[in-house]
Write a structure and sequence with these properties.
This protein is mostly beta strands. The chain folds into 4 domains: 1-37, no CATH class; 43-135, Immunoglobulins (Immunoglobulin-like), CATH 2.60.40; 143-236, Immunoglobulins (Immunoglobulin-like, Sandwich); 242-254 and 289-331, no CATH class. 0% of the residues lie in helices and 42% in strands. It contains no helices and 24 strands. The strands form 7 sheets. Strands 6, 7, 9, 10 and 11 form a 5-stranded antiparallel beta sheet that branches. Strands 14, 15, 17, 18 and 19 form a 5-stranded antiparallel beta sheet that branches. It has a 3-stranded antiparallel beta sheet with strand order 1-2-3, with no helix packed on it. The protein is rod-shaped and about 115 Å long. The N and C termini lie far apart (168 Å). Mean pLDDT is 77; it is low at 1-16, 29-35, 273-290 and 301-329.
Length: 331
């Protein structure tokens, strides 16, 4: 039978093995040889993690403090279990680490980590901590570079391309949207162009008009909601081209009209009462066109006056004053 030796420590129960007659079967001498049984559960404290929302470019350290009485069997093994996004559990033996520490690294945005410690002593007593968790975050704004435009003073008959490079680390949340804002009327209206799908984030301004002033900037964000914009940029549309010279074709009469060289008398018969006759000699006509003057479809032009030249976008308008002459009627 087993009898309790009350001489033993109340903290460390002592058992002595005796036979039915009370004779000791096994044990030590004064005090009797004893068996020490450790049924004490290990205790822990200071269950910590660096952050419940670590950044994607950081590490997260989880720690625990485990204790057992000095005269107990002693800590044997400490294991850290974790899984990511409800995946399989991964075991890490942290028995030999200082303060039983595990460092989670190579974090990616929006990963969900669950973890707990399991530990035992050399007597086989074991326990574990409650589940803990953390979620990887991203509070860093994407960065931009190479903010460019083809020209700060493009010509009216050209186009002008504006562009930007926006980057974010592969383990961050990722670029969500890139928008080009521009105005030509001092932001009375704000034109927004989504250039996200262009990947190189490019916009080409076309149909420019002389005197226009474009103001523009890029706005961008990532899927974690971090946003920023580039500084305001601008360009002004100019015109440095000389007006085109237009040559007008004029057709002239091939042979100038010939002046009369003889006078042909025209005799009229006087009235019956008249006894005399008269001869009418027409003088050379002065109403014929000037020799060599231009002719259009049989109409002679004695004047060809350019009244005005208006320099306009894309061409020149000529206003002409034309004086028309017709052949004189025979009287």
């Amino acid at each position: 039978m087993l009898s309790l030796n009350t001489r033993g420590s109340t903290l460390d129960p002592v058992f002595v093995l005796r036979g039915k007659d009370g004779v000791k079967i096994w044990g030590g001498e004064n005090p009797e040889r004893t068996f020490m049984d450790d049924i004490t559960v290990l205790t822990y404290s200071s269950l910590n993690q660096t952050s419940s929302t670590p950044e994607y470019d950081e590490t997260n350290v989880v720690t625990i403090n485990i204790t057992e009485p000095t005269n107990a069997s002693g800590i044997d093994t400490v294991l850290l279990y974790y899984r990511i996004d409800n995946g399989s559990w991964v075991e890490n033996n942290v028995s030999s680490t200082h303060n039983y520490t595990f460092t989670a690294d190579d974090l990616w945005y929006d990963q969900f980590y669950e973890w707990y410690f399991w530990f035992n002593d050399t007597s086989g007593n074991n326990t574990q901590t409650p589940f803990q968790s953390f979620t990887v975050s991203d509070s860093t704004v994407p960065s931009y570079s190479n903010l460019n435009q083809t020209s700060s003073t493009p010509e009216y008959n050209e186009s002008n391309t504006v562009s930007v490079t926006i980057t974010e680390p592969i383990d961050a949340s990722g670029i969500d949207s890139v928008l080009l804002h521009y105005t030509t009327n001092n932001w009375i209206t704000d034109t927004i162009i989504d250039v996200t799908s262009s990947q190189t984030f490019v916009f080409t301004a076309k149909m420019l008009s002389y005197g226009q002033k474009y103001e523009w900037y890029f706005w961008f964000n990532d899927t974690a909601g971090n946003s920023a914009q580039t500084p305001l940029q601008s360009f002004s549309v100019i015109d440095t081209f000389e007006p085109d010279i237009i040559t007008l074709a004029r057709s002239y009469t091939s042979t100038p009209p010939t002046s009369p060289t003889t006078t042909a008398p025209i005799t009229s018969t006087p009235p019956a009462s008249s006894t005399t006759s008269s001869t009418i000699t027409p003088s050379p006509t002065n109403s014929s066109p000037i020799n060599g003057s231009p002719s259009i479809d049989g109409m002679n032009l004695s004047t060809f006056i350019i009244l005005d030249i208006l320099a306009l976008t894309g061409g020149v308008i000529l206003a002409l004053e034309l004086e028309k002459y017709r052949k004189p009627k025979v009287k």
